[in-house]
Design brief:
The chain has 156 residues and is of the alpha+beta class. It contains seven helices and four strands. It has a four-stranded antiparallel beta sheet with strand order 1-4-2-3. Helix 1 packs parallel to helix 2. The protein is globular and about 40 Å long. 38% of the residues are buried.
Length: 156
């Protein structure tokens, strides 16, 4: 059964380096996802790593959604998740903060404890980047070591 590892990174550069390192060690864009609340940040990560175009959720395809994304791009401050990779289908566009559990519930359904999911959400609200890797249990230490080598932010 696959295991989900999530690393928190405070800079776009650290997240990009980690994604590149994961690709070099054999992981693909089918196993690596990246999440942020900053569209500009996600565009930079996408361009530098080739992880795929960031998704903002279904509302982003409507006229209102496009306008909202333009404003978010200018302000660089949406309150919803921007995602790339396999997690984008479930996580892109989920609201964070404001007492909603839109982000927390999908993580819990993937086996993440509620307290950890809440901390991941808090880090997204701070502007940090989450890199998610789905791997086999025997590969978890290798992924964790890659995270640690590149300034992963620990959760409490």
């Amino acid at each position: 059964m696959a295991k989900l590892l999530i690393g928190i990174f405070s800079t776009t550069q650290d997240a990009s380096i980690v994604i590149d390192e994961l690709y070099k060690t054999g992981y693909s864009d089918k196993e690596v996802s990246v999440l942020s609340r900053k569209l500009k940040q996600m565009n930079k990560i996408s361009e530098s790593t080739g992880i795929g175009k960031p998704m903002t959720g279904n509302a982003g395809n409507s006229v209102f959604g496009m306008l909202k994304n333009m404003v978010a791009n200018i302000e660089d401050d949406p309150k919803e998740v921007v995602a790339a990779g396999p997690a984008a289908r479930k996580m892109a566009g989920t609201e964070i903060g404001k007492g909603t559990d839109d982000f927390i519930v999908p993580l819990m359904s993937a086996g993440v404890p509620k307290e950890d999911a809440q901390q991941y959400e808090a880090h997204l609200l701070k502007g940090h980047v989450l890199v998610m890797v789905e791997c086999e249990p025997h590969e978890a230490d290798r992924v964790a070591n890659i995270f640690k080598a590149h300034h992963v932010v620990e959760i409490e």
